Amino acid sequence: MQLRTLQLGLAVFAGMLLTTAAMKSQMPNAIPSVGPVWEYTAISSIGNESRGVSSAAVNLGDKGWELTAVSDHIMYFKRLKSVIHKNE
Questions:
Q1: Which residues make Cβ contacts (< 8 Å) with residue 37, sequence separation at least 6?
Q2: pLDDT digit string (tens) for 64-87?
Q3: DSSP letters of 17-52?
Q4: Which long-range contacts (CB under 8 A, 24 or more apart) does 4-13 make?
C-alpha cells in the first residue's frame, strides 16, 4: 500500500514538473511597451489679450510643453506625461 502511494505521489509530482515546464515555455519573455503617453492643454484668447496669451505660452514652454497647433484664437500644446510633471 505504501509503495503504491509513493509511486502515485512521484507520478503526480513528475506530471506537475512537466506541466510547469510546458507552461513556462509559452509565457512571453517581456511585457510589451505601451508607447509614449501624452497630455494636452490649450490657451484661448478673446479680443486683445495677446500679451497675456504670449506670457502663458512662454510659461508652458518653460514647463516642457511644446506648441503643436494654432487656430484663430486657440494655441494647443502637448508634452510627454511623466512623474516629473505629476504635481503641476
A1: 80, 81
A2: 899 999 988 889 999 988 756 555
A3: HHHHHHHHHTS-SSPPP----EEEEEEE--SS-HHH
A4: none
H/E segment holding residue 75:
strand 74-80
What's this model's pTM, rounded to 2 decimal places?
Answer: 0.54
For residue 18, give the C-alpha cell.
512537466
Using alpha carbons only, give the angle 50, 76, 73 rounded to the nearest 5 degrees.
40
Q: How many residues does the chain have?
A: 88
Cell of 45: 484668447
Joined grid coordinates for residue 63? 514647463
Laid out side by side, the sheet with 74-80 consists of 38-44, 74-80, 66-70
